[in-house]
């Protein structure tokens, strides 16, 4: 069973704060640099791209569901 990354959709900003349009969310196995899939559905049948790119408003471009395990999430600017 998967869990939603954040509900409702999170919006990302920098420290100014300005919207982080086009920023990227990378998902890894916790404490490693091994990429780990996320999914756009709770049944884990449709994988997302890794990284998930934020839209012009700073929101993820898709739903993000995680496997039942520990993740490391890295936010990188565009």
């Amino acid at each position: 069973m998967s869990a939603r990354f954040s509900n409702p959709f999170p919006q990302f900003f920098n420290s100014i704060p300005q919207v982080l349009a086009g920023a990227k969310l990378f998902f890894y196995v916790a404490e490693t640099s091994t990429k780990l899939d996320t999914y756009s559905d709770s049944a884990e049948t449709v994988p997302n791209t890794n990284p998930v790119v934020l839209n012009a408003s700073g929101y993820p471009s898709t739903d993000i569901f995680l496997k039942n395990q520990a993740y490391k999430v890295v936010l990188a600017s565009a």
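The first strand starts at residue 3 and ends at 4. The mean pLDDT is 93.
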